[in-house]
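Translate sequence into C-alpha cells.
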Amino acid sequence: MEGKEVRFGIFNSALFAVVTTSASCGAVNAMHDSFIPLGGLIPLLNIQLGEVIFGGVGAGLYSMLLFVVVTVFLAGLMVGRTPEYLGKKIEAYDVKVSVLAILIPLFCILGFTSWAAVSAWGVGGLNNSGPHGLSEMLYAFTSTTGNNGSAFAGFSANTIWLNTTLGIAMLVGRFLVILPVLALAGNLVKKKLTPPNVGSFPVSGLTFAVLLVGTVLIVGALTFLPVLALGPIVEHFILTNSNKLF
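Result follows.
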C-alpha cells in the first residue's frame, strides 16, 4: 500500500495523475512512483509531449502553436499547397525556429537523463535499480524541464550535482524555449495578411485536427519511445512475467 491514497481510490488517483501532467501543474493526490509501470508511463508521456493537452499555466498555448506551424508545413509538403496560418505565410525561418523550440526540451530531458544514468551522482540518488530506476531519473528531468513539479518521489535529488542539473533543466524549460518562440512571433507579426485562396491549406476541421494530433504523437513517439521502452515498458513485461510464476 506504499504511496497509495485509499481515500480517493484507483480511478481518482489515476485521473488526477493524468490531469496534473497534461498541464504544468505539479499537484498530486497519490505517489506517481508507486503506480504500476504503465500507470507511470502516462504521466511521463503527457509531460514529454509538451503538456499540450490543456497547455501550461500562463503562456501554455504556444506549445501547441509550435506544433501547428510544423503541421501546416508538413501538410503543405504533402498536398502541394502554400503553408499558411491565420493569413500569414509559413516560411523556412518560421519552421526552423518552431522545430528548435520543440527540440530544446527534448535534448535537455534526454541529455541530462543519459548523463545521470552513467554517473555516480545520478545513480546514487536512486531508490530502485533496473528499469524503474531509469524511470525515476527520466521523470525527474522530464518534470523539471516541463515545469510540472510532480516527481517519482523515490528519486533522492538533494545533492549538489542533482540540484545543479535539475536547476539548469528548469531554466532551459522555462526560458531557453521562449527565445525561438519570440523569434517566431516577431517574424509573423511583420508579415502582411494574405487572403485565403484556392492554394491555401485549410487549418480548421477534422482533417487538420487529425494531422495536428498525429504530428504531436509522432514527434513524441520517435523521440521518447526508446527510453520509455527501457524504463516503464520493459518494467511492465518484467512485472507481468513474474506474476505468471505464482
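Note: The two ends are 20 Å apart (CA to CA).
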